[in-house]
Amino acid sequence: MTTNLAPVLAISLANQSWFDKMYGPVIAGIKSKTELQQTSDAASALRLLSQVPAPSTVLITDHALALKENATVWNAVLKYVRGGGTAVIMGSFSSFVLPNEIEPFFGQAGLRWWAGPYHRSVLTLNESVAVALGVDAEKLLPRYSQKALLMATKATRAMLYVPDKTAPSMSRAALPGNCETAVAMERVGDGRIGYIGDVNAEDGSQRVILAMCGLL
């Protein structure tokens, strides 16, 4: 494959063996357009984050960077983002991160995001936010259901998908409030940080990941 696009780097320090199978469409979509670099080693992650040219996108596929022992790698990701890169928090992050780890984790990026409820809900695409963030929404699903750890934020500019208040509740929990979403993205420095809280790798979420990478 010949491409001028810098590689996508996937950092998977918790190294879950099922990731490649569960996110097969994302991996195939990336590899159809550029190189996918995958690492489960902190030293390798630091080296790849400093490569020239820098990765076009960094995928954080699990909760490991929220742990204190991996702070050096998370700080390197934030340096990359502030310099103009895009990092997407996805995969098993929402399944294994502890609620009290979320606010300080994103707080280091200057984001006021904290843990919301965990349940299934229906979300609809917020096209104006997609345009403002430079996310191509043309092939994103306008509306879909997902079971997810919702992210709470007062920054409505970060809500790439918003709760569909016309949809019936699909779980015992109440529908998400206006400031909660399973799909968020916000500018940090000259770059962007995205979050997908879906725990089941729904088709709609895999499309979102590729769109955040600029590869949909």
TrEMBL record:
<protein>
    <submittedName>
        <fullName>Transcription factor Rba50, putative</fullName>
    </submittedName>
</protein>
<dbReference type="InterPro" id="IPR029062">
    <property type="entry name" value="Class_I_gatase-like"/>
</dbReference>
